[in-house]
Amino acid sequence: MLRGSGYITALIVVAIVAAVAPIGSSVAAAGVGALYRTGDWRSEKHVPVIDCPVEFKAGEPTTVTVTVGKEREHPNTAHHYISWIRLYFLPAESTLPYEVASFEFSAHGESILGPDTSTLYVDPKISVDFRTGVPGVFYATAYCNIHGLWESAKAITIIE
Amino acid sequence: MLRGSGYITALIVVAIVAAVAPIGSSVAAAGVGALYRTGDWRSEKHVPVIDCPVEFKAGEPTTVTVTVGKEREHPNTAHHYISWIRLYFLPAESTLPYEVASFEFSAHGESILGPDTSTLYVDPKISVDFRTGVPGVFYATAYCNIHGLWESAKAITIIE
Amino acid sequence: MLRGSGYITALIVVAIVAAVAPIGSSVAAAGVGALYRTGDWRSEKHVPVIDCPVEFKAGEPTTVTVTVGKEREHPNTAHHYISWIRLYFLPAESTLPYEVASFEFSAHGESILGPDTSTLYVDPKISVDFRTGVPGVFYATAYCNIHGLWESAKAITIIE
Amino acid sequence: MLRGSGYITALIVVAIVAAVAPIGSSVAAAGVGALYRTGDWRSEKHVPVIDCPVEFKAGEPTTVTVTVGKEREHPNTAHHYISWIRLYFLPAESTLPYEVASFEFSAHGESILGPDTSTLYVDPKISVDFRTGVPGVFYATAYCNIHGLWESAKAITIIE
């Protein structure tokens, strides 16, 4: 986990955003980006991992899988779980990102008998088919109910 | 598609619900169930198809795939698309269903240049891993932005 | 609460749906509507209450409020809470319902220190502005993390 | 709108994130924060505006309203609309943000007759009741189906 460097990044981002904020802005804080943390998914279990080819055939459905806890399993209990994974795509040479999909994970073991009694759990991993005719970068975000917001990114290119 | 019989079902449900509605109720209609339609997914492209084993090993992650348009492809354009798929599970011998997961599909080709110009599309098919220690019934629901609510169900059993 | 009559309704619906199900259908259960319960919101704390005028001015933004626990407060703790409220609208003389909005309530007191330690809670009540040129029926649905799916409905008319 | 300075900020953030990225990282881009834009809501119609008291009574339900297009109305048509508003809260002296709520706006005029034929629209404005015992910062985010991700923030304090 990159807590140390993430914290320094956040501080620098705060400074930069403050510097470019409009006069009269009521924004009292760094942007929402400072809320997200990342790191090496092999050691930090919260980081979403994007698995897909690095080359997409233009316009062809291609499976994209996003997993939280791919190497080190994330807990999935009534008290500690991944609430959602959201996937974005920023086309190259564009500043306008698109939301691809948003996935809520709702079953985490609770029932009227108490926490972790239902036996029902949905794991924080999803697969969808995505089509694109342009290269760009996927951004995966994830939310842990007690450890906040996490992110990762993966660039892809297009082959005709 | 079961438009005919679905409509008759809806009418009958309206009559039954009206008959059992509480005195003073302001409910002027059948329950939300009457909003959902179903049919044979091989001929009706809106019906979500649940693919998974019919036997789950107790507590083992098992992949469940839900597809809209499995046999007859559903359109995926800026004007006509599947907005979401939501998956529920009702344990046998229970009247309390659980939401398993909710999946929003957000990219349907629109951009600042107009409908169907971005080249980006996410298809209405998802896969998740689910664990259960009890048998029950999956319910998949889907929403088409212009053709409303659709549903299907699939029962599973447990092997130890 | 209408547990008794609701149960009878469910049984009858099962019979009807079975009767109209397509040959070869793998659907092993009544439709998703049988998963929803309703009742008198003054005594049953789970029933969503739709508050809005019964007459909408055609095309004018009109506030619709949906509340779970309006008379008898629903618990809002890390172990027992309302996860979401979803609002639909069925135009009169149509069989195609529309989703109006979907509201997820995410903060229920949990933190890294354990359940009910964060002091942060969002209550199960929302307000949105809706415009329509046609009469119809609102359907509100809500999900309790341990008591399942609930519904209510409210008809509106249009004044020019 | 801060397109110019936003772009420069993004470039600097890219450089910083690259500098602190772990060895072997596959992250090919700046963090997700660089995808969000902000500005003065009085001139930029996409910026979400958070309206609530700046002082919350500890533990008391307090209404928070988030509006996109508060001063300059944002379009709400089948081709151009606000898809969602999401609200976060970062407690002071914490690095772990919480999602408060997520609001999807689903009705934007489309029907089987084509774009902008249903007469049904939900506007990009929501109100919820939130309780907190600690001061912190709200972050509101919003997504326009063709103009991407937007954000704003508002700090609050606590009075006992």
Give a written overview of the molecule.
The structure is a homotetramer. With about 160 residues, chain A is mostly beta strands. The first copy, chain A, has two domains: about 1-35; about 35-160, Immunoglobulin-like, CATH 2.60.40. Helices cover about 10% and strands about 40% of the residues of chain A. Chain A has one helix and ten strands, in the order αββββββββββ. The first copy, chain A, has one helix at about 5-20, and strands at about 35, 50, 55, 60-70, 80-90, 100-105, 120, 125-130, 135-145, 150-160. In chain A, strands 1, 3, 5, 6, 9 and 10 form a six-stranded mixed sheet that branches. In chain A, a hairpin with a 6-residue loop joins strand 5 and strand 6. The longest helix of chain A is centred in the first third of the chain and has 18 residues, at about 5-20. Chain A is elongated, with a radius of gyration of 18 Å. The termini of chain A are far apart. Residues about 1-30 of chain A have low confidence and may be disordered. Chains in contact: A-B, A-C, A-D, B-C, B-D, C-D. Chains C and D meet through strand 6, strand 7 and strand 8 of C and strand 6, strand 7 and strand 8 of D.
List keywords for this structure.
homotetramer; 160 residues; mainly beta; Immunoglobulin-like; 2 domains; six-stranded mixed sheet; three-stranded antiparallel sheet; 1 helix; 10 strands; 11% helix
